[in-house]
Amino acid sequence: MRVGCCGGLEQAQAVKDAGFDFLEVNVQSVLKGDLASSEWDKAAPDPAKFVLPVEAANCLVPGSRPIIGPQRDLAGLQDYMQRVAKRAQRLGITRLVFGSGGARKRPEGVDQDTADKHLAEFSRMAAEACAHHDVIVVIEHLNVGETNTLNKLAQARHLADKVGHPALAVLVDSYHYALEKENDEAIIELGDRIRHVHVAEPVQRVQPGAHGAMAHSPDAYDFAHFFCLLRKAGYGERISFEGKWSQPIEKVGRQCVELLRDAWDKAGTCES
Question: What share of the chain is helix, strand, coil (3-state, %, to 5)?
Answer without folding.
Answer: 40, 15, 40
